[in-house]
Input
Amino acid sequence: MGDTAVKGTGQTEVPAEASTETLETSETLTLDEYRARARVWIRENLRPVPAAGPAPVGMRTTETPPEVIAAGRALQRKLFDAGYAGITWPREYGGQGLGGEYERAFLEEARGYQMPNLGIAGGTTFGVCAMTMLAHASPDFLRRHIPRILTAEELFVQFFSEPEAGSDLAGVRSRAVREGGRWILNGAKIWSSGAYYADWGMCLARTDWDVPKHRGLTWFAVPIGAKGVTVRRIRQITGDAEFCEEFFDNVELTDDDVIGDVNDGWTVAQTMLMFERGGGLSHGGPVRKVPQGIAPDLVELARSVGRIDDPQARDLIVRAHVDDVARRALMARLGGLMRAEPGRAAHLASYAKLASGVHDPVRANLAMAIGGPDAVAWEENDEAAGRTAIGFLNSRFMSIAGGTNEVQRNGIGERVLGLPREPSFDSGKPFREVLRDARNWSGRAG
Amino acid sequence: MGDTAVKGTGQTEVPAEASTETLETSETLTLDEYRARARVWIRENLRPVPAAGPAPVGMRTTETPPEVIAAGRALQRKLFDAGYAGITWPREYGGQGLGGEYERAFLEEARGYQMPNLGIAGGTTFGVCAMTMLAHASPDFLRRHIPRILTAEELFVQFFSEPEAGSDLAGVRSRAVREGGRWILNGAKIWSSGAYYADWGMCLARTDWDVPKHRGLTWFAVPIGAKGVTVRRIRQITGDAEFCEEFFDNVELTDDDVIGDVNDGWTVAQTMLMFERGGGLSHGGPVRKVPQGIAPDLVELARSVGRIDDPQARDLIVRAHVDDVARRALMARLGGLMRAEPGRAAHLASYAKLASGVHDPVRANLAMAIGGPDAVAWEENDEAAGRTAIGFLNSRFMSIAGGTNEVQRNGIGERVLGLPREPSFDSGKPFREVLRDARNWSGRAG
Amino acid sequence: MSVRLLAAATAEQGMLVDTTVRFIEDTLPLTGVRALAESTEPVGAAYIADAASLGWFGMLVDERHGGGSASGIGLVDAAAVAAERGATLQPGPFVGTNVVAHALSVAASPTGDLVSAGQMSAGPVSADTVSGEAGPHTDLLARLVAGQAVATWVAGAVGGLTPGAGEVTIRSATDAPGGGSALDGYVLDGEVRHVPDALGCDVLLVTGNGTDGLTQVIVDTTAPGVEIRALSGLDITRRTCSVRLSGVHVPAGALVGTPGTATEDLFARQTQVAAVLAAAESVGAMHRDFELAVEYARARIAFGRPIGSFQAIKHLLADTSLSLEMAKGLVTAAAEALGGGAPDGAELAHAAKAFVAEHGITLTHACFQVFGGIGYTWEHDHHLFMRRLAADAVTYGCAQWHRARLAERIGGVG
Amino acid sequence: MSVRLLAAATAEQGMLVDTTVRFIEDTLPLTGVRALAESTEPVGAAYIADAASLGWFGMLVDERHGGGSASGIGLVDAAAVAAERGATLQPGPFVGTNVVAHALSVAASPTGDLVSAGQMSAGPVSADTVSGEAGPHTDLLARLVAGQAVATWVAGAVGGLTPGAGEVTIRSATDAPGGGSALDGYVLDGEVRHVPDALGCDVLLVTGNGTDGLTQVIVDTTAPGVEIRALSGLDITRRTCSVRLSGVHVPAGALVGTPGTATEDLFARQTQVAAVLAAAESVGAMHRDFELAVEYARARIAFGRPIGSFQAIKHLLADTSLSLEMAKGLVTAAAEALGGGAPDGAELAHAAKAFVAEHGITLTHACFQVFGGIGYTWEHDHHLFMRRLAADAVTYGCAQWHRARLAERIGGVG
Output
């Protein structure tokens, strides 16, 4: 679950880019000129976003239809050709090399227009994988892959979690062995969102078993179509199958596929986790606070089941609302604290994650209580009526995916509150011994 | 806090005894004859219990006035002289040596009559200390002390918990050192209920620092009036001062004062904890289930603050009631399970303790919510109005005293559910190293 | 693998539970339930008949009506069976059939007031003492007990039991368009949603508003004007249905009990019996979901340790275990009291359903947290329990409804 | 040691908080509060005057009335001060005096409708624009701001704010027994309990029912017929009082604002301002109780480890920390919005009080569990915070009351 985390659909985080052709021009433009020009291009080339219905209660990981992805790839290419892809990314890898203010200007102008929809893998590619690559991969690697990412020819997903390594992300057991100048990859990965339509996986494998677990790990770019890679879609409890599971059977890779240094994969992973957990929060301005009235989705729900005048339903709505505004206020507070002390940003981010992990289920339960019998059974094909139930099934997503509540609580306890450390049983010995000792657990220690 | 725990006032658990004079007679009596005779004696010698007001919300550790204790001692003596003290206790130590059915018969007849009130120390003396002594002390010790306990000349309290050893009961640091045929005791104890009016303390001290913590402990009987013993009453958050703290400054003890084997104190402690935590539960019949209506105390409270017709107050009352009946039903269920599997009784008792630890605070909060402003401030000297607040202050008693919620959860997790053990950092090395290592805690382990 | 709802089961109760567990394992274990869920079939007639032979449908029926139970208190036995059913997410209207059979049995007794009286399966047969003839529903009762017919209860929004579900109007046929004599019986109109397992039932016990107050009648599902439609639902192991009654004629003999106050009392008792049995089924589901989570916590390794050795997991499971034990105790106590005619029977029944409805949801969330990612997969059984527990929480009255019944009793006794 | 309520304090706000913290440390640290609690003395006049010189009582008062604040939004500054006060359990009517001063300042503005308008300390003085004369309470306002007088608000059960507290009747003196002219003002009768810190106050703002609807007047505590009695209370660091008004005459000039709808609006605003400031004080108390618990968890050794290394304790504190951060964020957001005239100001104020009232109780329970036995001792400070938080939870409206205000707004915006 670690691999999709806090990104939502990823959509809004796809940085829009500018292509090489217009580079010179853009650079000489003032921000206002750039903005004006972008506005013209956007109006001529993008379509307005269709009016949306009310947001569903809870998060839903809906599948993106193949034709939508195809259209998304085409549109991303169009952005690239027009010079609006990778606006802040380095020019040598196909980006525009402009400042963040240019990107913001473009995004502000594009608000209300449809940007490329590359599904959940799009968010992972642009928001997590490419950002991590730019920080750690070799120039050769970047020259090969980043331009193709910017044109949406290469969509990347994370091959990070494993069936036996979920919360314990560094506990991966997939192994890459160097043989005759090549790397032979074996193992399994899970929770890779959208892998079934992506092109590459960014894969963490163990390359040394005789050092402690955080060492001996290496990242590889794995072509999903390569021989020996099997992708299986995982049917989720909601019936969707956005997540995938991969099996690697003697997959052959080369040194060109290595991202970052061999056996230094955990350093790379830290960067990746920062992007995945929304580490960007600290760079943004204050979170925009839009008064939204009182829990509009639950008010709508109460109306639809005829309980809008029921005092107990109204109290449940208000309870959800109080938590809603407290969570919004928390985000604003965290933004302030992070700007004041950027060094603590990564640790403070645990609060945002934990708030979702703790309160999403509470809110989903409130919605079920408001919905009553009508939230539990509904007329066949009345999708709107089923939303509360879907929200309920999905409500623990944030409490598990991308670092469980327990992991966040440890982080807050130790790194924010300064409480003494958890005893560690896996950091001081070769990983192969960790596995053996865990199987023979007796509780004996120091 | 460990030392008063689950016993309530202890009062009802004081076994009534029969003195030596009537021994022969009693033994030849049938149960019915015994009962008839006891009835006569009771009507002639005991006073009816005065009608009580409604029970306060939550538990209150009220102090027992000295004159009440004095009267209690006299009455206990009277019972002893009549042959109704220590009914089931061995004859050689002053008891009557009769079966439990005789004791039950006496107690049933005495229902509604005032039995000796020896305050909280009385419960500890008869229900915990004496029972533990009978199981572990030497015949000599028992001959010296038990008869004087039965006549209430010696009231015992526990000297068990220490300022630095609360939940971690075996972590005591009070030390007894053998010097020239005597034991010299130094250290401090805390949470000894009623020590300020008791005569003896049953005290756990470390007698060997070079073995793991559960070994190297020994129990002593300490005269509270001995030279070097200082008793300080602890003012509690409710304003009461039932608990005490003791300081030992080179207190001299002899081998005669040792209870159980030297360095085998933890074995004795296990017996004591069983009595303290109400291990008797498994021997009783099914818990009597008396329908009590819906949370009478809270209904009374809601009436007194004028909210008995407020739907939200009524819902809070019902919420408390649902938990109340669930807790009563739990006790009945535990009784059934314990009778079916007596071997699991001690582990199952954790459920009863945890239920109180978890739900008492919830209930106290509900009471505060029902009481509203009138539960937070009241007319000077209106004691009834202050009960809700006292209940609130006291509501975590069961979650902390006599094994915290956390200790119970560990017990249920490991010994009932069979979950893997907590890593231990204090069981495999000399106690003096445990203390040193804890101070230098780094979290590193296996 | 048994839920062991009863802490102190008699030998007879132990046997009933054992045969029930074995029957389920042999005929419809969880894998079978899963397969059935993905098809559209209701549970088969053979399953019902075999279950009936174990005594599943006669425990709340007077012996003179062909009922009987393992112990003196049929509701306790029925609750024990319900818990085992819940642990394996058995489909089909067990609660419905038992409630209907019980209502028929009570209504057929001369006073009809077993509600406040005594033991659940005591009381004489109406045939003997009232008219000398067989009661109106004797035959149906026998068929229900024998598993030759299945029934469910169409209560709808009566008394707020199922908010938004709709209600049925029961008019005398004489008042209906076209008229007729009193012998013609009644005409039913209305649509009620959220009827558990109506599809596949032979008869419905319909509660509705009549000229003389609350009225209950038996309706054959094959009668003209009866339309039953399955709804989509969160709980895929059980089918909630919509029942539309359009001018459905039933004979006078279809009446169950006397309309008005007596039926209100019987209705109240039906809600209480349904509450206990539904809560017992939930407790079974809670038990199994929890058991799976404990097994997982023992086996799953992370950070070099089995995750169950972490206090975060261990204490979560301990707290969950506490509420599960409380739930089991409370359901048992309610079954004993309501079934045994104790003064606090109704009170305990409402409390049990309120407690279980809320703690079932809490429990399944806790288990989900222990499972982590694996709990998100369709293949893992957890979501089946999660779905069931959420659906159970509102079936036969949500926690709020049952608490409201208790609130009405504040200041009284029992 | 600062609570640091504001995540992004300006330099001026930082200075205000620093001087406040230093002032408290120097004049009335927790040891002093404890001593004061065991005596019967109210807080001294010197303390009030010094506090006033730091700006404590002018932040919600228009500049033209002598008020002023460190930042543009006085309520944010006042909340920051309140939080520091709460952390050290400062006694005295800080919330009361500020609410009264604010009410006087708003009522003295020509439209009197700052309620819905804008910045908290903006708006012209009535003296300038309405009549050319000084407003009726100009002098009192100046004294409050300068710390020469202290005030509290006697609201009682008006609007359900303090259930069971009683209400005051405010009649025109002409209607009162004995009669009189309109110039004679008003006569007040009634007893109101649960008035915070009334003992030691110079004036009271009394809200009551008058002939023309809701009416507010200023009452001198020395006026004949005013009787103030301290109640016993859970919170020993603050005195809740009963105020009895027996035929108390006040002049016409004692009126604050216009009776009826305008006063209802002002009353609503007063509840919101009080909610924000009281919540801010609570958050301060939460902060310090929590800080003590974290310190204890770091230092206390059991089972060979610091107890904070156990997940049971660590995770409890992490969850508690989350709700504390949410509380701080919400109080700040409410102060910004209500003080800054944002459309959702009222909504956030009610939400903040509701959130803090409930989470304050949860937090103090969590801290108690960490302290274990030591928390039971009178000597340990924990119980002082526990008492304060429980009392705060119902002062100026309990969680339920504030949620009810939000429920009224369902379907609207802001």
